[in-house]
Structures are given as C-alpha cells and as structure tokens.
Design goal:
The complex is a heterodimer of chains A (about 950) and B (about 210). Chain A has 45 helices and 9 strands. Chain A has about 950 residues and is mainly alpha-helical. In chain A, the strands form 2 sheets. A 6-stranded antiparallel sheet of chain A has the order 1-2-3-4-6-5, covered by helices on one side. In chain A, strands 7-8-9 form a 3-stranded antiparallel sheet. In chain A, strand 2 (about 85-90) and strand 3 (about 95-100) form a beta hairpin. Classes of the chains: A mainly alpha (about 950), B mainly alpha (about 210).
Amino acid sequence: MNAAGRERVKELLSRAALLPAAERAAFVHRESGADAAIAAEALDLLQTLEDSEFLAAPTGAGFASTFAEPHFGEGAGSRIGRYKLLQRIGEGGFGAVFMADQTEPVHRRVALKIIKAGMDTRQVIARFEAERQALAMMDHPNIARVLDAGTTDSGRPYFVMELVRGEPVTRYCDREKLSVPQRLELFRDICYAVEHAHQKGVIHRDLKPSNVLVSVADGRPLPKVIDFGIAKATAAPLTDKTLFTDMHQLIGTPEYMSPEQAEIHGVDIDTRSDLYSLGVLLYELLVGTTPLDRGRLRATPLAEMQRIIREEEAPRPSLRLATLTSSSGAGRFNTADEPARDAGSSAMDVARCRRSEPTTLMRALRGDLDWIVMKCLEKDRRRRYGTATALADDVGRYLRQQPVLARPPSAGYQIRKFVQRRKRSVLVAFAITMVAAAGLTATLLQARRANSEAEQALAVNEFMREILTSVQPGNRGADVRLVEVLSSASRSAAQRFAGHPTQEAAVRDMLAEVYSNLNECRESKAERRRAVALWSATLGPDSPEALVSEAALARTLIALEERTEAAAILDGLLPRMERVFGPDDLWTLMTRKYLADVYTLHRRYDEARAILTELRTHPVLAEDDARQLDLLLSQIRIDKNLQYSTSEEGPVPEITRRLEELAAECAQRALRRFGPGAPLTLETQLWQAEFQCHSGRYPAAAQTARALLDATAEAFGECHQIRLDAMDVLAFSLAGLGEEREPAELVLRKVECMRPKMDPGSPILLGAMSQSLDFLSRAGRATEGEAMARELLTALRTYGGVHDLIDVTTEFYVAHFISMQGRLDEADALYNPLLSRIPDLTKGGEVQAQVLYGSHLVRCGRFEEAERSLLDAVAITGDARRGVGGHVYPDNLLVEFIALYDAWGKPEQAAEYRRLQNEVLKLSAQSSPQ
Amino acid sequence: MNTAASEDTGHPPAGSGPLVDGITQLLEAAAADKPHAARELLPLVYRSLKELADRQMLGERRSHTLQATALVHEAYLRLVGTAQCRWDSRAHFYAAAAEAMRRILIEHARRIGAKKRGGDRVREIANVADLADEECLSDALEIDAAIEALRREDPRAASVVHLRFYTGLSIDETAAALGIAPTTVDREWRYARSWLLRRLKLDGRGATSP
C-alpha cells in the first residue's frame, strides 16, 4: 500500500471509530468506494484492534492528575506572585480558574485563570501587554475588569480578573424563567457592554454564555462580560499549525465562532465577529439552542467544522422552535427541515422557561426577531449590524413595537429559499453555484467601487429575486431547470436595464459566472463578452470591473480550448492588471494562472509549470486552500497532457503513479473543502478513476466511474463535462475487461451529448469522435463507424488537424469500416496510398494501422501478408497488450490473430492465441490496487 | 535509531555532577535547534530515568509497576526542577525521555534474558507500565522491533507511538511535542495500534506454528 492509500486507511479508521462497533464495517465498505485494497486493509486493522486492550491506556494512571493539572506546583493553597490560590472554581480546555486572594497593594478577592501548557507564554504575555492599555480604559458596570497578567513559576501564563460570582446568562434566564422581553432587556445590557469595549478598541472574540455571567444586585440581574482581552492574548496567529494545536482553546468556541474566525487565515477579525457571537447568544436566549448544533460541531473533524461554520445557514429561530416541537412528537409543525438533536429540550420546555406556549412563542419570534437574529448571523459580516449599539437599538425597537431595521430577504436568501422549496438535488447543486456567483459579483462590486455599490447590488439582487420568484411550481413544475431561468433572465436583462449599463454589466457577469459553473461555456462566453463591453464602455477598459470580467472571459475561453483568443486577451490584460491591481493582487495572480493554462493548451508545459510553481509558493496564495487546489489541478492537467502527448509507449508508470497520488490528495482536499458532490470533488474523483484505469485496475476504475455517472447525472444533468469524462473512463475500463457493447454505447452517447454544446470544429469534440472509432469497430458497428469516420475526416479537413496525424489514422478507419462491411475492393483502394504513411504515425498509431490493415488482409484471404502485418504490430509494441493512445487493449491484437488463424485454417495457432487472450482477460479482471 | 546500537551508545557516561543548570541550558539549546544539545541531553535523561526505574523495578519490585509517566515526571523535576522552561524545551525533554525509557526497558529485558511469550498475550499490554512485569519484559523487545518496522513504512506514525508509548504523553501533549495537530496524533495513534498489534500477532503465530 502506498502512502496515499495508507492515509486513506487512517482516515477511515479514525472516522469509523466514531461509530458504534456494529456499523463500522458497513461504513468502511461504503466510504472506501471502489478501492477494495483500502477497504480490506481498513477492515483488517479494525478487526485486529476490536476488543483489544493493546495500548488502550498509554497514559498511565496518575499521569493525568500530575501533569494535566495546572501542574508544577499550582493548586489550591499555593501562591502565584501576589496571589494566593484559594479554590478552583472552574476549568475547561483553556486551563483552570481559581478564586484567589490578592495581598498587595490592596487586599481583595480575584479570579485567577491559568492557561494550560502548550502555548508560548512569552507571546501570550506580549499580546496581553499590547492590549493592556486598552483594557485598562474599559470601565463599565457590565464588564469584569482584567487586572493583571503574568507567568507562573512553571512558565504558564495567567490572568487576574475581577471575581464575578454569577452563573452563565442562559442558565440564569432559564432558572429564573425570564420572559422573552426580560431576556431581551438583559441582552441589550450585554450589547452595550460589548459596545463600550469596542469603542475602546477591544474585541472580545469569544463571547458565549459562560463568558457572560449574571449575578443579582439590588434584586436586579447584573450581567457581566468576563475574559475581555484574553481570547486575543491566547490566540496565536492563525496559521495552520497553531490552529490545529488546540482549536477550542485558541480561537474560541465553535458554536459561537463567526465564519471569518473559522477561516485559517481569518486574521483580520473585527468587531463584527463579536456581533455574530452576540447573534448566537441571542438565538440561544430565544430558543434554547445554538444555531449550529453543538453536538454535531464537536463530533466533526476540524475541516468539516470550518465548512459548516462558513457555509451552513441556521434555520430562523421560529423555525428552529418548530423543529423542536415536531421532534417531541406533537407533529403540528412539520415544516422543519432537520430533526432536532437536543433530545432534552422540546418546544414545550423551551416555551415554559420563557413563561409562554410554543405557538405564542413562535408567533413572537416570527418576523422581526427572526430577522434581527439572522442579520447578526449573516456569513458575510458586511451584512451584519455595524455596531453592538445598532443591534441593541433594533432590539429596543422591537420591544417598543417599532419597525426594526433588520430586513428580510437578501438575494442570497431568496436563492436559498428557492432551493429549499424544491428539494431536488439538481436544483440544489445549481443554485449553490448561483449563490456563489452572486456572492462573487457582490464582492467584486463592493470591493472595487464602494460608492455605487449599494445601489448596484440592490438592483441586481432585486432582479435576481424577481427572476427566481417568477418561477411558479404550479405552472412549470417543481423541477424547473436553472438553465431555463437563466436564459429568460438573459433575455429580459437588456430591456430591464436599458439606460443602466453598469447594472446590466453586473447582471451579465453574474449570469456568465453561473453559466460557467454549469459548464455552459458558450452561453457564459456570450454573457461575459457583453459584460466586458459594457464595463469598458461605461467605466473604461482599465476599470477593475472590466479587467476582472475580461480575466473571467479568458478563463471561459480556456475552458472552451479557444487558445488563440485566450492568449491574445491575456497578453493585453496582464500588464494592465499588474498596473491597476499590482503584481501581488489575487486577481492578477489568478490571471497569471490562466496564462499557465493557456501555455498548457499550447503544450508549452515548461513555461506553464514554471508559472504554477511560482504561484504555489506565492505568499498571497500559499495559505489559500481553494486556490492551491486550483493550482494543483492545473499541474495535474499538465502531467495528464504530458502523459498523452509525449509518450508513445503508453502511460509512463512513474507519471501515472504521481498523478494517482496527486489526484488522491486533491480528492481529499476537495472533499474536505467542498464536501461530497461538489463539482471539484467529483472531478478529482474522476481523475482517480482515470489513473486507476491507466494502471490497469479496470474493475476498480469501472466501479468508480459508474458511481460518478450516477452521482453526476443526478446533480448536473446528462451532459456535464465531468459526466462525459466519466463515460470515457468507464468505456475504457469496460473495454479493458473485454466488454464490447457498452463501451461503444457510452462513447456514442458522449459524442451526442457534446455536439449541441460545442463548435463543430472543437478539438474536444473531434477527439471524442476519433476515440469512438475503435469502440465502434470492436462492437462490430461498421456502418455507424464509417459515417463517424467520414464526418470526422471532413471536420478535420475543414477546421485543421488538432493532432497532426489524426486524419491519417481516421483515413485508416474509413477504409477499415468499409472493409468490415465487405466492400473489399473499395477498402483496398483506400488502404493502398495510406500504407506509405504508416511510418509517420506515432508508435501507437502504427500498431493500430497495422492491426486494421491486417484484419482487412484476413478478410481478403491474404493470410501471409496479414500475418506479417500483425507480427509487425507486435514487433512495434513489444507487448501485445499495448495499444493506441496510451491505453491498454488486451484483446485488440490477439483478436486479430485469432481471426487470422481461424480463417487460415490453423487451429493450433488460433488455440494458442485464445489461451493468451483468456489469460490477459483474467489478469485484467483480477487486477487490483497493489 | 537502531536497537542493536543501543548496547554501545545507550550506556550513560560514567561519573556524575551537578545537573540542574546544565540540563536547563541543554534543553534551551535543543529547543534552539542545536544538535549537540540533543545529543548530550539523552545520556543525562537516561541516567536519571534509569536510576529511578531501577529503584522502582528492582528495589520495590513487589509493586510490579513501572509508572513511565511518573518516572519521566520525576526525572524532569530532578533534572530541570521548577525553573522556568519553555514548552518546546520540554518537548525535547520528552523526546529524550522516550528514547531513554526505551533503552532502559530493552536493556533490562536483555539482562534478565526474557523468554518470548505466546503471540496473543501481547494483546493485554495496555501501556508501558505493563511491561515492567518480568514475564512481560520480552514483549518490550517485540514491541520495539514492531515500532521499528513501522518506522520504515511510516515514520510519522512511528514517532507518535514512540513518544506516546514510552512516555505516556497525552494526545495533546504528543501533538505539541511533535508540532502536529492533535487530530493527526489521534489518527496516527489509532492506525499504529492496529498495525503494531497485527504485526505482533503475525510474528507470534510464526514463532509458535510448527
């Protein structure tokens, strides 16, 4: 097993360990996909360890209590600096909190928090010192002051705070059964406290109920926010390494963490992160659970957890309440789209704690409170409240029954609703790409030109909303395809935005983006061209909008393999981008990546690789997972092309191995970053299948490819590029296993899918047609083969050859199919002038030509010539299993030998080749990963 | 690391002297990536651990326990004391301690000429303390050989086992010591346990089959 395989096994084992023992085997089978060797290894290891005590308790008894304790001395009774520890009052992932006595300069009781081992104390203290000034300026009745910080004798950082004898705000509210208005009043106090800190320049970064303690003073609840300044001091710079060291401790608590905090390089945290956390707190005060499920977040691997925080929308509070009710069996509210996981809290309990009834409570939440909470929880922080006071004021407006500022439906929200209403995976996948595109456009607009941003975004959003809501399930069926929606949008946009060219441009950009995500490249190209023209005409060709749009056009042209125009555009574009955005701007860098892709299309691999290598280490991109993946994929493309174009001997095993590993790494990263079913995940899985096929692991490859076919048909429709490629891999794998009928069906279907989407001269289309010839031949479909070969030949002559020799090979096929139909003289006439061209062909092409000609000679009864031709082919390959294009044709040559000796009346020789053929087939069928 | 070589290099240098100051410096130097420091660290830690281990295993053998972690901890206190010491210095200490502990066990097993046990008994070894039992000491050799075999295939998994098994560090501490994520440690550890046990069982079968 290679390293990549082993990593997969590890992954499987650790995920299986989270499941009940009885479910593990099934899980491994399911998750290991087509890879039998990995499944076998994982199962074997699982079973080995089952019920075993072996190394089950590596940490000897007594260890935990000696080391994990704030150790090396500190405990109740000991002294730290001027403080005497009295008793431990709390502990968690961060360390432990003690009640302590300060002896000088004043005698007072304080809380002392010791941060557990594993952090660089000097850095923690330095960060704290940096903020000490600001912390000292905070003076607010609802904020517990941080008094001091230092280093214990054992070298760990500690913080000294005002001692608050209270309980977490959520627990207090539930115990006191505060009503919703009472809770909201309390919440407003908290907001004002946070605002005070924000005004002094202090961001909390870890707001959560256990950091908001409520005590009772003068008969009134007094909330106090504790731990200001500590999260920042203890948060190491968020590199991969520190993030992984101890997530819960270092950067907050997942359920309360804002999406930007969950980003690995989300270094620029601002006050709006606290606004998000306040939103979570409010959510919990209202419905008793956090927006994202606590148990689920805790049980998830880090990358998935980040994805959830970044991407998953929580149900509105009122909806969540309904969910709770339905789970408790009342069944009245079945609108819930996910089952509640907090078993203990039914809506009845939640309502009772708020002195209310479920229906009444839900009515109270629905509308304004929903929107207030959801505004705090916006993934895009620009959509949240600007300040904590603004939030508190809006809550106040609700309490006074005035209209609130939080407004429902943004375009993104509408789109998500659009998806939720039609729970078809087709639409889900489509609409998600749409949301992404909408977000992109918004980013683009807002980042580059702030003044007209609001107006523009509003107009675009409004337009999208109209388009989406105009689709009535009633009259067009629930299964309206997004493409139709888009094309109607495209048609109406010009009229709708007459006189507002920039708005139209923004809409065209978005449509282009969505089309491109749907792999409708020609539509995308058309929309993008219009967008570029509009931007250039209105804002100038060097405006950021025009530049970015033009870069996207280049990208689409690359996808269409229109390499000449793409190159021309990039030539003019890159210097302008470097001038306008600077050489280290993300857009500039990604545009340089497109240049690498164009080089790849021109088969200038060294230049392409040089650019990619440089980009992969560029500081702006180094930490960016998604872009890295992008670059990795471009690199894979180069290797793939190399594999096909430079090698005449079939796949170079070394490159295949490298590719398989790269693809496995990509597939893993893509799965982690984008989840299963995402286009990129599927694409990388496709490549895995492809490389399995190359190494002759046909059963595995066929299985992977078939699974992909199913998955992509459901998600992307019949003719998505990934699906077409999967058809390809499947055809080759099945051919490798000796199948004849299905491969031919597959390649024909593929060509038919491509025709309407491609220019008739598209190299991709021509390549697919060329590829289908061999499969048609093996399936004995000679008339269709002849038609296909002739059509291909005409196209090649009209549009110019892609691969210079493809037309010679195609002429061979025309002759071949004619021969197959028994028109031997006609075939002969075609073959004769071709024979002199054989030495020009690639090695694989030569073999193929000899085989085709050999079969013709057999039909003509010219057995000795036929034998010579076939033996020539063997001599060229040196291995009867190798064939054209780097793919393995186990039976190709052998079949012809058998036909020859059968026809010739030499049964012993025929039998010999049959035996060889059987062996080869058996080998392919058994081949499995090493 | 080579098992055979530990016979020669594993012995501590003769003589003794004030250690405390020296070792703190060595740890800091090791943390600053000075290779000589790491080299000199090992004998010191070894000697300290060995004294403690001998006392426990021989002097107080009735207790039949070798509390690896307690030993390491005690050695640390003896050597470093409570002087302020950065975590990454401590990581170097643990690395040295793991290696020292391994050598102590192996040396001990060789000295008493421990007899090989049946393959399946090794399943019951829950931690390094279980090896202190004289009749289990031979397992120390086998486990060590298995860890070395693992290292040839998967150095990272082997490092995790090495540190975690011989010093009993927790997942988080192992992660901090190796500078990798706790989730990674957990994953490697789970894999390594299975892998090692499978190998040990296969070896055992080989030895007992006719």
